[in-house]
Amino acid sequence: MSKDKEALIGIDIGTTGCRSILFNLRGQPVSDSYVEYPVETPHSGWAEQDPNQWWKATLYNLKKVLEKAKVSPKKIAVISVTGHQPSPVFLDREGNPLCKSILWMDRRTFPQCKLLRETVGENELYNRTGLRIDPIYSLSKIMWVRKNLPEIFRQTHKILQPKDFIVFKLTGKIFTDYASASATQLLDVHILEWSSELLKIAGISADKLPTLTSSTSIVGGLLGQV
């Protein structure tokens, strides 16, 4: 770490709001900022959010924690991002969200879960991913979008989780960590790679998902326009 750095920033993309905290290099909190945003429920059992709200809240919070702490952006050593999941974000080739993110609490995908039980089987899916069949996971959500929003599905270039979307907006890089990937129900936990069989069921190729890395990896520097 460069000797001229003074602080670290943590960003949490929560379900009901985004919080950012600036820490000194001893790990002590110096300043914080929080922005709420709504969970949209257009139908019974549905729960959605506009990913652009997460980004807007992130930018606001970053500005506020720096102002409160009287720290220059050039003095920040590291920014770390976490967030709720599994809440897939469908992006076009320009990195713009194509639709609302289907949140982890959304329950619309019971038909897709039924299909998974009939075609893959509960035990087989559990043995491969460590997860039981449930609407919470990204696999059934991707299947739902493929069936019900075919034009959105056709235009989809990448599918990210909330924190990965924010990392992409900050750095232009597309990564996810193994822990986050394991919550999608698309990761083969025995080999720590995207499962080709489950990708086929979802109807996507591996290049539509983030590159896998450890949670402590430095994925890139900030874009100039951030």
TrEMBL record:
Q: Which UniProt keywords apply?
A: Kinase, Transferase
The molecule here is called: Carbohydrate kinase FGGY N-terminal domain-containing protein
Organism lineage reads as: unclassified sequences, metagenomes, ecological metagenomes
Tell me which SUPFAM superfamilies the record gives: Actin-like ATPase domain
Q: Which InterPro entries match?
A: ATPase_NBD, FGGY_Carb_Kinase, FGGY_N
Q: What positions does the domain Carbohydrate kinase FGGY N-terminal occupy? A: 8-222
One Pfam family name from the record?
FGGY_N
Extract the GO molecular function terms from the UniProt entry: kinase activity
- Signal sequence extent: none
A single Gene Ontology biological process assigned to it is: carbohydrate metabolic process
